[in-house]
Specification:
Pfam family, one: HPPK
Low-confidence stretches: none
Shape: globular
Order of helices and strands: EHEEEHEEHH
Number of strands: 6
Keywords: ATP-binding, Folate biosynthesis, Kinase, Nucleotide-binding, Transferase
Number of helices: 4
Helix content: 25-40%
Pathway: Cofactor biosynthesis; tetrahydrofolate biosynthesis; 2-amino-4-hydroxy-6-hydroxymethyl-7,8-dihydropteridine diphosphate from 7,8-dihydroneopterin triphosphate: step 4/4
Function: Catalyzes the transfer of pyrophosphate from adenosine triphosphate (ATP) to 6-hydroxymethyl-7,8-dihydropterin, an enzymatic step in folate biosynthesis pathway.
EC number: 2.7.6.3
Length: 128
């Protein structure tokens, strides 16, 4: 199965994004990351900028197991319940899609996700 995920952070962004990439590469060998992109917050009043990135990987694991692994990485970065309401996002890793199943349709149309997916598609084509 091919998984597409979105990664974001607005708190200690550099460190948390690096942690996410490191842990994801350990868990899912062959994972490909788009360029990290800085964006203004969506729906938040806190002016902290976000770092966002899209990644794609293949795994035989079920989606529920992949989601559990993603949430464990978020907890390792220090994410705790209630922080999102305070507009603090240490690390947010969302499963966007798996093969033809879309989990976050609203995220797949965000500009930075569209650009990230285009980058990943271009990289895949150049490897063929």
């Amino acid at each position: 199965m091919v998984y597409t995920i979105g990664i974001g952070s607005n708190e200690q962004r550099k460190e948390n994004m690096a942690l996410a990439r490191k842990r994801l590469a350990e868990l899912f060998p062959g994972i490909c990351f788009s360029e990290e992109e800085e964006t203004k917050p969506l729906f938040f009043h806190r002016p902290a900028l976000f770092s966002n990135q899209v990644a794609r990987f293949a795994s035989k694991e079920q989606a529920s197991d992949v989601i559990s692994r993603l949430k464990a990485i978020e907890r390792e970065a220090g994410r705790v319940p209630g922080e999102k309401e305070a507009e603090i996002v240490r690390l947010d890793i969302d499963l966007l899609s798996c093969d033809d199943i879309v989990y976050k349709p609203e995220d797949l149309v965000r500009d930075y996700v569209v650009r990230g997916l285009e980058q990943l598609s271009s990289e895949a084509l150049s490897k063929e």
